[in-house]
Amino acid sequence: MNAPDTNILIYANDSREPVKRKIALNLLADLDDAVLLWQVACEYIAASRKLEKFGFTQKQAFGDLALLENSWTIVFPTWKTLQKAETLISRYSVSFWDALIVAACLENGVTRLYSEDIGDFFRADNLEVINPFI
């Protein structure tokens, strides 16, 4: 299973970054067996406000997520996800938010996380973190 991080969704709509936008759009178009992490959905809606002055609205972000409903499964955090995040924070000294995304992936069988922000130090836990922009 695959999951994009928030930055992938944002770049797909960011006219200021044409190269990253093209990469993000191609990735999202080709992403098979994808899930939407609840945290990513929430961050996407919140971050979309930063793009309003560039012509992308929060309403459009909600519309994007509505389109994904037909083809992606949404993954909600559980108590076990929080516990796994705590373990990841201790093991890797990462931020809570990064640990929560990785924990949600691990708890739900995601094997590839596409992100610009999270390093590949989680590869040992059966999760490959891929930065599509390098």
Q: What is this structure's SSE topology?
A:
Elements: E1 2-4, H1 6-11, H2 18-30, E2 35-37, H3 38-48, H4 58-68, E3 73-75, H5 79-92, H6 96-107, E4 112-114, E5 128-130
Parallel strand pairs: 1-4, 2-3, 4-5
Helix pairs in contact: 3-4, 5-6
Main sheet attributes: strand count, strand direction, barrel closure = 3 strands, parallel
Tally the helices: 6
What is the tally of beta strands? 5
Shape verdict: globular
Beta-strand content bin: 5-15%
Low-confidence stretches: none
The average pLDDT value, as a whole number, equals 92
Going across the major beta sheet, what is the strand order? 1-4-5
Instruction: Please tell me the total number of domains.
Output: 1
Compact summary:
This protein has 134 residues and is mainly alpha-helical. The protein has helices at 6-11, 18-30, 38-48, 58-68, 79-92, 96-107, and strands at residues 2-4, 35-37, 73-75, 112-114, 128-130. The radius of gyration is 14 Å and the shape is globular.
What features would you describe in this structure?
The protein has about 130 residues and is mainly alpha-helical. The protein has one domain (about 1-75, about 110-130). About 50% of the residues lie in helices and about 10% in strands. It has a 3-stranded parallel beta sheet with strand order 1-4-5. Strands 2-3 form a two-stranded parallel ribbon. The longest helix is centred in the middle third of the chain and has 14 residues, at about 80-90. The radius of gyration is 14 Å and the shape is globular. The two termini are about 20 Å apart. The mean pLDDT is about 90.
